[in-house]
Specification:
The chain has 188 residues and is an alpha/beta fold. The chain has a single domain, classed as 3-Layer(aba) Sandwich (Rossmann fold). It is built from eight helices and six strands; from the N terminus they run βαβαβαβααβαβαα. α2 links the parallel β2 and β3.
């Protein structure tokens, strides 16, 4: 089974790695494909796609890491035709999943592995699941909470605060050596 973890990874952080590790353990994945969105349709990025790809390769050195040219998940799934794909998302993304482009079609082409954490409001997940016609294509798995966001990491870097332990060590080295996210522009 192929697990697919997509995102902007601007930058990738310990929460992303923890989600991938928990998914490997829970689902017994044969392969993890990390897809770095070249131009996310839902958010603006600070670092360019090539830099974010380099950072993701440093964060996931033993996985397949590629640039994803598709803005929307359904477009990727239609173009790539994976064998038994499991699209990995967090609980917040599941809560918003009914608003994605063609969510029912996404569930026809892939199953969802949804990482939940202790204390996340179960009613938000249930509400999203109730809106989906293919609830059987969604499996929840629990991860340890990591209260991290790429936005907060960029803000810490811009304030010249340490990010030790918040990002994988090789990602930290790249951020420092390339001077990434040091300006106010990195706070978006």
């Amino acid at each position: 089974m192929t697990g697919i973890l997509g995102g902007a990874f601007d930058p990738p952080h310990a929460g992303h790695v923890a989600l991938a590790d928990a998914a490997r353990a829970h689902f017994g994945l044969d392969r993890l494909l990390v897809l770095v969105s070249a131009a996310p349709g839902h958010k603006r990025t600070v670092a360019d796609a090539a830099t974010r790809l380099e950072l993701a390769r440093a964060a996931f050195p033993h996985d397949d890491v590629e640039l994803d040219p598709y803005e929307r998940t359904i477009d990727l799934l239609r173009a790539r035709r994976f064998d038994d794909p499991l699209f990995l998302i967090g609980a917040d993304q599941l809560a918003a999943f009914p608003t994605w482009k063609e969510p029912e079609a996404v569930l026809e082409l892939a199953r969802l592995g949804v990482a939940t954490r202790p204390g996340y409001p179960r009613e938000r997940l249930e509400r999203a699941l109730d809106e989906l016609g293919r609830r059987d294509r969604v499996e929840l798995f629990e991860i340890e909470p990591h209260d991290l966001s790429s936005r907060e990491i960029r803000a810490r870097i811009a304030r010249e605060e340490p990010i030790d332990g918040l990002v994988p060590p090789d990602v930290d080295v790249l951020i420092r050596s390339q001077g990434l996210y040091r300006s106010e522009a990195g706070l978006h």
